[in-house]
Amino acid sequence: MNLQGMAAVVTGGASGLGAATAAALAEAGAKVAVVDINAAQADAAAKRLGGLGISSDVADPEAAERAFALARAAHGPVRVLVNCAGVGTPGRIVGREGPLGLAAYEKVIRVNLIGTFNMLRLAAAEMSTLDPLEDGERGVIINTASVAAYDGQIGQAAYASSKAGVVGLTLPAARELARFGVRVVTIAPGLFFTPMMQALPQEIQTSLGESVPFPQRLGQPGEYAALAMHIVANRMLNGETIRLDGALRMAPR
Question: Which family does it belong to (predicted)?
Fold first, then answer.
Protein backbone atom coordinates (compact mmCIF):
# COMPACT_ATOMS: atom_id res chain seq x y z
CA MET A 1 0.00 0.00 0.00
CA ASN A 2 1.24 3.44 -0.90
CA LEU A 3 0.85 5.33 2.38
CA GLN A 4 0.96 8.83 0.93
CA GLY A 5 -2.13 10.61 2.28
CA MET A 6 -3.58 7.44 3.83
CA ALA A 7 -5.13 7.53 7.31
CA ALA A 8 -3.47 5.40 9.99
CA VAL A 9 -4.37 4.77 13.63
CA VAL A 10 -1.76 3.58 16.13
CA THR A 11 -2.84 2.53 19.62
CA GLY A 12 -0.30 2.86 22.39
CA GLY A 13 1.24 5.33 19.99
CA ALA A 14 2.65 7.74 22.56
CA SER A 15 5.64 5.61 23.54
CA GLY A 16 7.74 2.56 22.77
CA LEU A 17 6.83 0.36 19.81
CA GLY A 18 3.74 2.43 19.01
CA ALA A 19 5.59 5.74 18.94
CA ALA A 20 8.28 4.36 16.62
CA THR A 21 5.63 2.93 14.28
CA ALA A 22 3.61 6.15 14.27
CA ALA A 23 6.77 8.07 13.34
CA ALA A 24 7.59 5.64 10.52
CA LEU A 25 4.07 5.85 9.12
CA ALA A 26 4.13 9.66 9.22
CA GLU A 27 7.52 9.72 7.51
CA ALA A 28 6.05 7.57 4.72
CA GLY A 29 3.32 10.16 4.17
CA ALA A 30 0.47 8.72 6.22
CA LYS A 31 -1.86 10.90 8.28
CA VAL A 32 -1.46 9.42 11.75
CA ALA A 33 -3.82 9.41 14.72
CA VAL A 34 -1.99 8.55 17.93
CA VAL A 35 -4.35 6.82 20.35
CA ASP A 36 -3.19 6.45 23.95
CA ILE A 37 -4.72 6.26 27.41
CA ASN A 38 -2.54 9.23 28.43
CA ALA A 39 -3.99 12.35 26.82
CA ALA A 40 -0.96 14.59 27.35
CA GLN A 41 1.44 12.01 25.93
CA ALA A 42 -0.85 11.32 22.96
CA ASP A 43 -1.00 15.03 22.14
CA ALA A 44 2.77 15.46 22.51
CA ALA A 45 3.55 12.46 20.31
CA ALA A 46 1.05 13.58 17.66
CA LYS A 47 2.45 17.11 17.67
CA ARG A 48 5.91 15.76 16.82
CA LEU A 49 4.42 13.94 13.82
CA GLY A 50 2.00 16.60 12.66
CA GLY A 51 -0.79 14.16 13.45
CA LEU A 52 -3.76 13.90 15.79
CA GLY A 53 -3.60 12.87 19.45
CA ILE A 54 -6.59 11.01 20.89
CA SER A 55 -7.03 9.85 24.47
CA SER A 56 -8.97 6.59 24.60
CA ASP A 57 -9.42 3.34 26.49
CA VAL A 58 -9.04 0.81 23.68
CA ALA A 59 -11.24 -1.75 25.46
CA ASP A 60 -14.17 0.63 25.93
CA PRO A 61 -16.55 0.32 22.96
CA GLU A 62 -17.89 3.87 23.13
CA ALA A 63 -14.46 5.42 23.68
CA ALA A 64 -13.04 3.44 20.77
CA GLU A 65 -15.89 4.47 18.47
CA ARG A 66 -15.25 8.08 19.44
CA ALA A 67 -11.53 7.66 18.68
CA PHE A 68 -12.26 6.38 15.17
CA ALA A 69 -14.81 9.15 14.60
CA LEU A 70 -12.27 11.82 15.59
CA ALA A 71 -9.59 10.23 13.41
CA ARG A 72 -11.99 9.94 10.48
CA ALA A 73 -13.09 13.57 10.79
CA ALA A 74 -9.47 14.74 10.76
CA HIS A 75 -7.84 12.35 8.28
CA GLY A 76 -10.53 10.37 6.48
CA PRO A 77 -11.37 6.66 6.82
CA VAL A 78 -8.66 4.46 8.32
CA ARG A 79 -6.57 2.33 5.98
CA VAL A 80 -3.97 1.11 8.52
CA LEU A 81 -4.46 0.12 12.16
CA VAL A 82 -1.50 -0.85 14.36
CA ASN A 83 -2.45 -2.15 17.80
CA CYS A 84 0.40 -1.54 20.25
CA ALA A 85 -1.54 -0.66 23.40
CA GLY A 86 -0.89 -3.14 26.18
CA VAL A 87 -0.03 -3.77 29.81
CA GLY A 88 2.27 -6.35 31.36
CA THR A 89 1.30 -6.58 35.03
CA PRO A 90 3.04 -9.67 36.49
CA GLY A 91 1.58 -12.00 39.10
CA ARG A 92 1.86 -15.63 40.15
CA ILE A 93 -1.28 -17.74 40.00
CA VAL A 94 -0.65 -18.70 43.63
CA GLY A 95 1.57 -16.24 45.48
CA ARG A 96 2.46 -15.50 49.08
CA GLU A 97 -0.91 -13.80 49.60
CA GLY A 98 -2.87 -16.64 48.03
CA PRO A 99 -4.45 -16.93 44.57
CA LEU A 100 -3.98 -14.15 42.04
CA GLY A 101 -6.81 -11.65 42.27
CA LEU A 102 -9.22 -12.16 39.40
CA ALA A 103 -9.42 -8.41 38.81
CA ALA A 104 -5.69 -8.31 38.08
CA TYR A 105 -6.06 -11.08 35.50
CA GLU A 106 -9.13 -9.46 33.96
CA LYS A 107 -7.35 -6.11 33.55
CA VAL A 108 -4.55 -7.62 31.47
CA ILE A 109 -6.99 -9.61 29.31
CA ARG A 110 -9.20 -6.54 28.92
CA VAL A 111 -6.47 -4.25 27.62
CA ASN A 112 -4.32 -6.68 25.66
CA LEU A 113 -6.90 -8.99 24.09
CA ILE A 114 -10.30 -7.32 24.30
CA GLY A 115 -8.75 -3.94 23.46
CA THR A 116 -7.04 -5.42 20.41
CA PHE A 117 -10.26 -7.06 19.22
CA ASN A 118 -12.31 -3.93 19.90
CA MET A 119 -10.08 -1.75 17.74
CA LEU A 120 -9.77 -4.45 15.08
CA ARG A 121 -13.53 -4.90 14.70
CA LEU A 122 -14.16 -1.17 14.37
CA ALA A 123 -11.30 -0.63 11.92
CA ALA A 124 -12.35 -3.63 9.82
CA ALA A 125 -15.93 -2.36 9.59
CA GLU A 126 -14.69 1.02 8.39
CA MET A 127 -12.16 -0.44 5.95
CA SER A 128 -14.74 -2.79 4.42
CA THR A 129 -16.69 0.16 2.99
CA LEU A 130 -13.73 1.81 1.24
CA ASP A 131 -12.84 1.75 -2.43
CA PRO A 132 -10.38 -1.03 -3.22
CA LEU A 133 -6.75 -0.27 -3.99
CA GLU A 134 -4.28 -2.45 -5.90
CA ASP A 135 -5.14 -6.19 -5.72
CA GLY A 136 -8.46 -5.20 -4.16
CA GLU A 137 -6.79 -4.24 -0.88
CA ARG A 138 -8.82 -2.00 1.42
CA GLY A 139 -6.81 -2.00 4.63
CA VAL A 140 -4.15 -3.53 6.86
CA ILE A 141 -4.43 -4.38 10.56
CA ILE A 142 -1.28 -5.17 12.55
CA ASN A 143 -1.61 -6.55 16.07
CA THR A 144 1.06 -6.96 18.73
CA ALA A 145 1.45 -10.23 20.59
CA SER A 146 4.65 -11.36 22.37
CA VAL A 147 6.99 -14.32 22.51
CA ALA A 148 5.32 -14.85 25.90
CA ALA A 149 2.40 -16.27 23.91
CA TYR A 150 4.65 -19.27 23.24
CA ASP A 151 7.27 -19.12 26.03
CA GLY A 152 5.33 -17.63 28.93
CA GLN A 153 7.37 -17.42 32.11
CA ILE A 154 6.39 -17.99 35.72
CA GLY A 155 4.42 -14.94 36.81
CA GLN A 156 3.22 -14.20 33.27
CA ALA A 157 0.00 -16.23 33.28
CA ALA A 158 -2.21 -13.22 32.54
CA TYR A 159 0.16 -11.58 30.06
CA ALA A 160 1.00 -14.81 28.21
CA SER A 161 -2.62 -15.88 27.87
CA SER A 162 -3.67 -12.42 26.66
CA LYS A 163 -0.99 -12.47 23.98
CA ALA A 164 -1.78 -16.08 23.04
CA GLY A 165 -5.32 -14.85 22.45
CA VAL A 166 -4.01 -12.22 20.03
CA VAL A 167 -2.08 -14.95 18.17
CA GLY A 168 -5.22 -17.09 18.04
CA LEU A 169 -7.25 -14.18 16.69
CA THR A 170 -4.93 -13.57 13.74
CA LEU A 171 -5.79 -16.34 11.29
CA PRO A 172 -9.58 -16.44 11.73
CA ALA A 173 -9.72 -12.65 11.45
CA ALA A 174 -7.58 -12.70 8.30
CA ARG A 175 -9.72 -15.43 6.76
CA GLU A 176 -12.98 -13.64 7.55
CA LEU A 177 -11.80 -10.21 6.41
CA ALA A 178 -10.19 -11.50 3.21
CA ARG A 179 -13.45 -11.00 1.32
CA PHE A 180 -13.13 -7.28 2.02
CA GLY A 181 -9.47 -7.10 1.05
CA VAL A 182 -8.39 -6.40 4.64
CA ARG A 183 -5.21 -8.11 5.83
CA VAL A 184 -4.46 -9.07 9.45
CA VAL A 185 -0.91 -9.78 10.62
CA THR A 186 0.54 -10.04 14.14
CA ILE A 187 4.04 -9.27 15.36
CA ALA A 188 5.32 -11.16 18.42
CA PRO A 189 8.28 -9.17 19.78
CA GLY A 190 10.88 -10.59 22.13
CA LEU A 191 12.85 -8.41 24.55
CA PHE A 192 12.61 -4.81 23.36
CA PHE A 193 13.80 -1.51 24.81
CA THR A 194 10.41 -0.08 25.79
CA PRO A 195 9.28 2.10 28.73
CA MET A 196 8.57 -1.05 30.77
CA MET A 197 12.12 -2.24 30.11
CA GLN A 198 13.59 1.19 30.86
CA ALA A 199 12.12 1.01 34.36
CA LEU A 200 14.43 -1.91 35.19
CA PRO A 201 17.95 -1.40 36.59
CA GLN A 202 20.66 -1.15 33.93
CA GLU A 203 22.33 -4.40 35.00
CA ILE A 204 19.07 -6.30 34.48
CA GLN A 205 18.56 -4.68 31.06
CA THR A 206 22.09 -5.73 30.08
CA SER A 207 21.57 -9.26 31.33
CA LEU A 208 18.30 -9.61 29.44
CA GLY A 209 19.90 -8.30 26.26
CA GLU A 210 22.72 -10.81 26.57
CA SER A 211 20.16 -13.66 26.73
CA VAL A 212 19.20 -13.00 23.10
CA PRO A 213 21.17 -15.35 20.79
CA PHE A 214 21.75 -12.78 18.05
CA PRO A 215 21.96 -9.88 17.99
CA GLN A 216 22.92 -10.08 21.66
CA ARG A 217 21.01 -7.01 22.81
CA LEU A 218 17.53 -5.67 23.39
CA GLY A 219 15.47 -4.96 20.30
CA GLN A 220 14.93 -1.34 19.32
CA PRO A 221 11.43 0.07 18.71
CA GLY A 222 12.55 1.13 15.24
CA GLU A 223 13.11 -2.53 14.35
CA TYR A 224 9.49 -3.30 15.24
CA ALA A 225 8.41 -0.29 13.19
CA ALA A 226 10.48 -1.48 10.21
CA LEU A 227 8.69 -4.83 10.23
CA ALA A 228 5.30 -3.12 10.55
CA MET A 229 6.13 -0.98 7.52
CA HIS A 230 7.13 -4.06 5.51
CA ILE A 231 3.86 -5.75 6.43
CA VAL A 232 1.95 -2.74 5.13
CA ALA A 233 3.93 -2.85 1.87
CA ASN A 234 3.90 -6.62 1.26
CA ARG A 235 0.40 -7.82 0.39
CA MET A 236 1.34 -11.51 0.59
CA LEU A 237 1.80 -11.18 4.34
CA ASN A 238 -1.56 -12.13 5.80
CA GLY A 239 -2.92 -14.32 8.59
CA GLU A 240 0.50 -14.86 10.14
CA THR A 241 2.21 -14.15 13.46
CA ILE A 242 5.85 -13.17 12.99
CA ARG A 243 8.30 -13.59 15.88
CA LEU A 244 10.72 -10.69 16.12
CA ASP A 245 13.06 -11.94 18.80
CA GLY A 246 16.64 -12.64 17.67
CA ALA A 247 16.00 -16.41 18.09
CA LEU A 248 15.18 -15.96 21.78
CA ARG A 249 13.31 -18.71 23.62
CA MET A 250 12.35 -17.62 27.12
CA ALA A 251 13.37 -19.72 30.11
CA PRO A 252 10.75 -20.69 32.72
CA ARG A 253 11.85 -17.80 34.95
Answer: Belongs to the short-chain dehydrogenases/reductases (SDR) family.
Per DSSP, the three-state class of 16 is helix
Tens-digit pLDDT profile for residues 111-140:
999 999 999 999 999 999 999 999 999 999
Rounded (to 5) percent helix, strand, coil in the chain? 50, 20, 35
Q: Which residues are catalytic?
A: 159
CATH of the domain at 231: 3.40.50.720
244 phi, psi to nearest 5 deg? -125, 85
For residue 250, tell me if it sits in a domain.
no
What is the number of structural domains in the chain?
1
Q: Domain for residue 2, yes or no?
A: no
